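Example 9 (inverse folding). The structure is encoded as follows.
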């Protein structure tokens, strides 16, 4: 008997499992994202405990909440939008309904506040009565784990220091730390036993100050102690002890510095060559970095100055350019005059004397300014240098020949030019005084900037060279340097070790322990991010409740003012409704104030409530005790639901989009089945002229997608809509018409299926007296149910998910199909609403799933089911 060999398919199974996970991940992501409260595309937890069906409710039910009801009341009283055709009686009925709903929300909000307050109180009672001791037991277990870990690290480093020949004397530091912690514990015990107000901000600040490491009592003494002593004189007896604790810490820090200095001295002796070389290189690098920083600072200052000067010079340049052509033309005329035989004279007073004085000044100013600007590229490019150069030439000429020009200024050939250049000079004289100092300063700054750039370049080269040398030294002595760093940081490790030996008995100690151990005071100990989360648990619970109370107070104030305005609105409802009826537009003050209250005040309350909810959720995730976990999750859920009643939402007619797609896809699928089933029958059963050509034509048509005919279809639909009022653009019937272009492919499917049905069945029926249509209707179609189901499903699915054609034809939001509407969730206010987007995606799959399940028995049925009888 042959043995059956059992094959091993482990690798194949692994590949299949990986493929299944990859294929199913998008679906899992869709489902999980649609029910998560946060709207992030990806969450650290794929399966979050913060679940909600709110996204589905917002898409399907769309129950108006507080801000929506206020908007609806505004719309009704203004008779706008869908309320424009209401009578006063209808508007009154609608308004009363919305007002009642709004009042229900107000009552519900207060009820939820009371329930949440009670829930918080229950958690605090549970904590104090049942779980407090267990919490501190867990906290101290973590502390002891830290102590063991750090003690082991300390022993290893001490062994390492002995191997390296370094003697570490830490007895003094250890003793000082023990004395410090003893004194600190004594102060804390005294404060706890005192009659001081334990809830005051001074007490809380004092406790947190005492427990901080490093300790700084100077700020506490100025900011807290001096004010506290005026309110509670009893604190005076503890103030001296707290300040003494501060002095004790200063002495501890001095001891730490002495230890480090001693260690470094020993290292310098043992590793004098390498260690000193590295230190010298690092010092040189630090020095170069300081020089570069200073030069960069000076460079930035000069660049800012030059920017201001540049703008001022350009403003002056604009003034000079205005007179440029006029002065140039006048200069050309004056320069061409023969002045050799002219006997000169100078003006003694008046405008000509002022002109002469300015010419003398301009001849010097323009020449100096030209020399300052001539070497600066930016002024060469913008034309200022050429302008100033021309003026320098003009006024040098005028200054050298002014007496002769003045002597013949009244000649007809010279007078216009003389007057023009005089007028221009006097106009520019008011601004020209700034030209020389500005150009000198700019030129000087530019020279300094060039020098700084050269120095910076040299320093950067030196820095790069030193960095390379340092990197080589460090890489060659990496292990030694790492060990040296550990030994140098040994005093900080001792502080950590001694800190872990102090028992944690209250929340202040717990929170400050967690903060200190996570502070990297000792760089060799980096705990996990969530290691000390239990130590902050109670503090976070307090913060969550405080945020809730703050949010409650703010929201209650908003609600009280809204209720007052709503009462005024109810009393004057008839008058308000009559006021705007008939086309008037009058502001309804109570509603406007309610809207303004929401827009300006609710955001602050919402932020507090949202933060309280998030903290409650985080606390529940890091709580091992089931009772506390369930109550915290209930608080988180109730806070979220409270926000949903008040948060503004942008509504979209999603159910209308879904219905539009079902209508369009359903009608298109039915029409396609009717047309193609009838059209394919003659091609399968009959022989007629043009049959082959018709089949060939159908095959050619199906080679081209319907989108290629979109321009023609668009034109036809526009024409039909404009002139006949049917099958127009932005209509579902027009879209159905556009989708009917895919019948050729489906006709081939039907024709191929009809070919598999035996002709003998129809021939038998025809012998019994049936007509051709009767054989088609009673025999062929019932046998074709599988292909009918296939065509129906394929057509429905293709049309239901089609986007491009629908986006072109449909313009109004109310006529959108599912695919076009879904696209709107990817932009605008919905761009980050991933929960809504995924929920809409899943809801859109329901019609296709229902259709597939309802037709599946025909799809999997036999091709000739029912054709043979037993």
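The amino acid assigned to each position is listed next.
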């Amino acid at each position: 008997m042959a043995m059956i060999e059992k094959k091993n398919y482990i690798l194949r199974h692994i590949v299949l499992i990986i493929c299944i996970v990859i294929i199913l991940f998008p679906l899992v992501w869709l489902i999980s994202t649609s029910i998560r409260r946060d709207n992030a595309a990806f969450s650290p937890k794929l399966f979050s405990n913060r679940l909600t069906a709110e996204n589905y409710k917002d898409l399907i039910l769309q129950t108006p909440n507080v801000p929506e009801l206020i908007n609806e009341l505004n719309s009704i009283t203004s008779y706008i939008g869908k309320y424009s055709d209401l009578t006063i009686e209808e508007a009154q009925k609608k308004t009363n309904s919305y007002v009642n709903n709004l009042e229900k929300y107000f009552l519900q909000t207060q009820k939820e506040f009371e329930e949440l307050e009670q829930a918080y109180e229950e958690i605090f009672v549970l904590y104090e009565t049942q779980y407090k001791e267990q919490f501190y037991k867990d906290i101290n277990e973590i502390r002891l784990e830290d102590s063991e870990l750090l003690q082991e690290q300390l022993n290893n480093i001490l062994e390492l220091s002995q191997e390296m020949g370094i003697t570490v004397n830490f007895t003094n530091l250890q003793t000082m730390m023990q004395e410090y912690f003893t004194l600190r514990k004594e102060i804390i015990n005294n404060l706890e036993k005192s009659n001081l107000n334990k809830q005051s901000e001074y007490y809380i600040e004092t406790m947190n100050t005492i427990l901080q490491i490093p300790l700084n009592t100077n700020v506490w003494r100025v900011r807290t102690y001096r004010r506290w002593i005026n309110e509670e004189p009893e604190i005076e007896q503890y103030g001296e002890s707290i300040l003494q604790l501060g002095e004790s810490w200063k002495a501890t820090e001095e001891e730490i510095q002495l230890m480090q200095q001693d260690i470094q001295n020993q290292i310098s002796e043992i590793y004098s060559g390498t260690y000193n070389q590295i230190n010298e290189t690092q010092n040189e690098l630090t020095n170069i970095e300081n020089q570069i920083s200073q030069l960069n600072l000076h460079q930035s200052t000069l660049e800012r100055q030059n920017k201001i000067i540049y703008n001022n010079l350009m403003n002056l340049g604009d003034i000079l350019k205005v007179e440029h052509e006029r002065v140039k033309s006048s200069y050309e005329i004056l320069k061409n005059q023969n002045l050799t035989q002219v006997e000169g004279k100078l003006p003694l007073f008046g405008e000509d004397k002022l002109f002469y004085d300015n010419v003398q000044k301009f001849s010097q100013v323009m020449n100096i300014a030209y020399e300052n600007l001539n070497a600066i590229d930016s002024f060469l490019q913008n034309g200022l240098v050429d302008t100033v150069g021309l003026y320098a030439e003009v006024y040098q000429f005028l200054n050298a020949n002014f007496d002769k020009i003045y002597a013949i200024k009244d000649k007809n050939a010279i007078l216009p030019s003389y007057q023009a250049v005089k007028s221009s000079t006097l106009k520019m004289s008011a601004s020209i005084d700034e030209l020389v100092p500005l150009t000198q300063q700019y030129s000087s700054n530019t020279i300094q900037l060039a020098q700084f750039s050269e120095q910076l370049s040299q320093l950067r080269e030196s820095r790069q060279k030193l960095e390379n040398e340092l990197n080589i030294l460090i890489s060659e002595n990496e292990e030694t340097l790492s060990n040296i760093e550990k030994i140098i940081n040994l005093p900080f490790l001792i502080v950590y070790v001694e800190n872990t030996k102090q028992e944690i008995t209250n929340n202040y100690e717990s929170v400050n322990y967690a903060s200190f151990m996570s502070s990297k005071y000792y760089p060799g100990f980096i705990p996990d991010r969530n290691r000390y989360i239990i130590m902050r648990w109670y503090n976070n619970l307090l913060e969550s409740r405080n945020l809730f109370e703050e949010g409650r107070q703010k929201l209650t104030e908003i609600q009280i003012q809204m209720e007052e305005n709503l009462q005024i609105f109810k009393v004057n409802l008839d008058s308000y409704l009559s006021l705007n009826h008939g086309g008037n537009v009058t502001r309804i003050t109570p509603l406007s104030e309610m809207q303004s209250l929401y827009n300006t005040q609710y955001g602050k309350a919402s932020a507090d409530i949202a933060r309280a909810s998030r903290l409650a959720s985080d606390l529940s995730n890091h709580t091992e005790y089931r009772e506390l976990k369930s109550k915290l999750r209930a608080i988180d859920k109730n806070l979220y639901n409270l926000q949903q009643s008040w948060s503004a939402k942008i509504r979209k007619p999603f159910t209308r989009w879904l219905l539009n797609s079902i209508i369009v896809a359903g009608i298109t699928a039915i029409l396609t089945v009717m047309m193609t089933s009838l059209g394919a029958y003659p091609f399968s059963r009959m022989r007629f002229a043009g049959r082959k050509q018709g089949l060939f034509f159908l095959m050619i048509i199906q080679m081209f997608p319907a989108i290629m005919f979109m321009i023609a279809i668009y034109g036809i639909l526009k024409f039909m809509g404009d002139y006949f009022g049917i099958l127009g653009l932005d209509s579902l019937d027009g879209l159905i018409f556009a989708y009917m272009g895919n019948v050729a492919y489906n006709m081939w499917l039907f024709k191929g299926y009809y070919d598999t049905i035996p002709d003998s069945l129809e021939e038998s029926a025809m012998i019994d007296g049936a007509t051709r249509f009767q054989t088609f209707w009673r025999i062929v179609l019932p046998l074709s149910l599988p292909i009918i189901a296939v065509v129906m499903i394929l057509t429905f699915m293709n049309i239901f998910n089609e986007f491009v054609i629908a986006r072109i034809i449909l313009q109004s939001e109310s006529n959108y199909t599912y695919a076009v509407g879904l696209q709107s969730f990817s932009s605008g206010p919905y761009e980050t609403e991933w929960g809504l987007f995924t929920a809409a995606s899943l809801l859109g799959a329901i019609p296709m799933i229902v259709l597939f399940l309802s037709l599946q028995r025909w799809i999997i049925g036999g091709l000739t089911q029912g054709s043979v009888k037993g």
